[in-house]
Amino acid sequence: MRKNSIKNTRLNEEVMRELSNIIRNEIKDPRIHPLTSVSLVEVAPDLKTCKAYISVLGDEKAQQDTMEGLKSAAGYARRCLAHSLNLRNTPEIRFILDQSIEYGVRMSKKIDELAAKEGRETRPETEEDA
Q1: Contact 91/19 with Cβ under 8 angstroms?
Q2: Is the Cβ–Cβ distance between 73 and 81 less than 8 Å?
């Protein structure tokens, strides 16, 4: 199975959906932040390993606590995944912190600040021309 095959793409989506449900409903670790989401899942073509990119909306301590909680519950999550998916091999899950959403929000704020600053600097000139 190639990495970008249709079967692998569907499997990635299915694992992502099930893993989101497991994190939200099954794992009862208090370290896991309530605003935790699975942003991307990459299952290896041999179905042995899986990288789950996790996004946590919170401060740095909440992110670190959530990652520790997920790493300690990886075996339980794998067992729940095996029960919900009918696969020959259930992949070993590696949780990776994804900060791309946070980065995007920061960049968007900076762009808005620059646009507001540009708007204030250029408005008096356009009003004089009118």
Answers
A1: no
A2: no
Q: What is the pLDDT of residues 113-128, one digit of tens each?
A: 999 988 876 655 555 5
Q: What average pLDDT is seen over the chain?
A: 88
Q: What is the largest CA-CA distance in the chain?
A: 73
pLDDT of 32 reads 94
Please tell me the predicted confidence (pLDDT) of residue 41.
95
* Residue scoring higher pLDDT (103 or 91): 91
What span, in angstroms and rounded, lies between the C-alpha atoms of 39 and 97? 10
Amino acid at 72: S
3-state SS, 84-106, equals HCCCCCCCEEEEEECCHHHHHHH
> Does residue 59 sit in helix, strand or coil?
coil
What ranges make up the beta strands (E) of 1-130?
Answer: 36-43, 49-56, 92-97
Q: Which of 30, 28, 26, 22 is nearest to 52 (CA)?
A: 22
The torsion defined by the Cα of 47, 53, 54 and 59, in degrees rounded to 10, comes to 150
